[in-house]
Amino acid sequence: MNVRRRRGGVVRPGATGVCRGGGIYLALLVLSIMVVVLPLGASSLEEQVRQVTAELRCPVCQGLSVADSPSRMANQMRDLIRERLQAGESPEAVKAYFVERYGEWILLAPKREGFNLLVWVLPFLGLGGGAVVLVVVLRRWRKRAEAVPASVDVDPAYLDRVRREMAQDQS
Amino acid sequence: MKKVLIPLSVLPILFLLAYGFWTDPSFVPSPLIEKPAPPFALTLFDGGDLSLDGLRGKVVVVNFWASWCFPACYDEAPVLEGAWRAYKDRDVVVVGVNVQDTEKAAREFMDRFQFTFPNGPDPQGKISIDYGVYGIPETFVLDKEGRIAFKHVGAVTANVLTTQIEGLLRRAPQVEESTGGHEREA
Question: Touching check for A141 and chain B: CB below 8 Å?
């Protein structure tokens, strides 16, 4: 009883201490998460510039994004994009401006609508079709495999001998 | 079954290949055709300013060029200067926009071909991007209402330029005449 009480007495302040410490740790954890996550959530200007330039084709390059191209034109496009974002335009509006001038060609990934959907759907259709073909072919092979032993005549005497020899081997 | 399946799988691939080889990947259709030309202002090499708005009512040829663009820009330079000299008295203006260039090289180029039409630099590339330029040279022909009527990628020839200019010079009065005719009929 005494021990228990003492223990309780010892534990209680300790518990509040742990609790207080936990609070500090929790606060630190929340703070560090905020420090790490907040800039991403607010998506800084440079982050937005990077995002938009990564989705736009560098017009003077071969299959390079504006973000990846060191060309002068890509530099000028980056400056223009930064300028427009700074002026308060949304990333979508900036992309729309380039589409208006260059056509959808300027987008590295085609918009997911209309005929373009084919590009997004076709790989999965191909995958599904391939699976169907695979199943059909495997089934056919299995049928053939099942059919084969029935059609082969085995000499009963020969079979007997094999069984006998196997039994000898095992013993 | 196999007789049907093989052509069935090969034909789409052949069509795809045929389409891919017949279309020119370097040709990008401009969405700006028949749209109002983006306005711009140029600070000209020989001093002074030029604003596209001030050219309303004229057929305008806007050419994007650079001194490093060889041989296409060198091929078309005499054509542009020739068109300017032939048509400047008939409400036609040729404007040169020099892109991604140094002033010195641009001036040497203009001296070499004895340019007399207005030329100015596009130092930040804003005019080129506004016009959806993806290669040098590119030439736009604007009608009298300031719409982009025609775009040519690569060295423009005298034949193409003359046809376009003549067509636009003829087009505007024709529209007025035909509406006048309708009024008379009514």
Answer: no
